[in-house]
Amino acid sequence: MRDTGANESHQSDGSDRVVSLGDIPLHSTNLLSLLDEDGVIRYQSPSIARLCGFEQEDLVDVPCTECFHPDDRDAVFSAFENVVSSDEFVVEAVEYRHLKADGTYLWVESVASSNPTSNGYYVINTRDISERKHHQKELERANERLQEFASIVSHDLRNPLAVAQGYLELAEGDAPTEHHTKISNALDRMATLIDSLLMNARGETRGVEIEPVDVSRLAETCWQNVVSKDATLHTDFDRPLHADPLHLTQLLENLFRNAIEHGCDDVAIALGALDDGFYVEDDGSGIPKAERDRIFEPGYTSSVSGTGLGLSIVQQVVDSHQWNIRITESSSGGARFEITDAEFAQ
């Protein structure tokens, strides 16, 4: 339920607050009801049959509270009383379960204003929101499954990760090599990703910790974590960027992987600075204009082996920094991602 509050331009002594019955679209696809000041139904439009299975006259002269689910009655009637008793123009909207002719209930949203008709009745506009409620419930269930999955995955990954780190320490001995260092960095990165996975699944946020970042150096580290085959990376970035290094790592790695997964084996990737941000582009096949509005959606992918999560993570990082991102075409016809509204360190 939400109260839009008083609108001073609509305040009056009541003489300009009435509306004519002829102004009410009684044949709307929504259910339109007229209630007196006591909440008794005085009229319902034919849509009551489609929405709830009642004949048009079945609920006339019935207190509206008898049509509400018992758990919703207090909240709904309180909203109606606010409309009736207000000396100012208000609009109330409330979601609740409405009785159906078969004894079940339908999720609806009703909207009413403090403008009565010339007969002193209040117009209630009711629409079916059951599909939205169903999707909301499915989303809640999916989030619960995601949290459970993430907990299991993080637990099952930590054990072999700890074993690998233990064997690495034994293998290093007193003379660690460059290969040992790369393995250690990769294991540390895995541990960080596991923590991030669990936090995201639980709806927790680590927060953005901004600091000057050497983007070229960070990009080199990211490139080592990407299976690049014959792909190449060219970096032209000589200014430190204000960013969260962990989040920026996720952004760059996912953009690099996206270019490799959707390009040829020897795809060439370039990272460079813009006046107010940076870009990542490649010489692959590009992204069709029709797909550009959807590719940041979680689960959307044009690759058989893709998960559809990489670019959604990119969007999350962009949003967390209050940057903007747009997709265009590189000079060679490939994909070009431009991240703007970023700030450079002095």
Describe the fold and architecture.
- This protein has seven helices and 13 strands.
- The chain is an alpha+beta fold.
- The protein has a six-stranded antiparallel β-sheet with strand order 1-4-5-6-2-3, with helices on both faces. The chain has a five-stranded mixed β-sheet with strand order 8-10-11-13-12, covered by helices on one side. Strands 7-9 form a two-stranded antiparallel sheet.
- Strand 2 and strand 3 form a beta hairpin.
- Helix 3 (130-172) runs antiparallel to helix 4 and helix 5 (215-224) packs across helix 6 (245-262).
- The protein has helices at 47-52, 73-85, 130-172, 178-201, 215-224, 245-262, 310-321; strands at 2-3, 31-35, 41-44, 91-99, 105-116, 122-128, 211-213, 232-236, 241-243, 268-274, 277-282, 324-329, 335-340.
- The chain has three domains: 2-128, 2-Layer Sandwich (Beta-Lactamase); 150-201, no CATH class; 211-340, Heat Shock Protein 90, CATH 3.30.565.
- The relative contact order is 0.08.
- This is histidine kinase.
- Its EC number is 2.7.13.3.
- Residues 92-141 form the PAC domain.
- Keywords: Kinase, Phosphoprotein, Transferase, Two-component regulatory system.
- Residues 34-87 form the PAS domain.
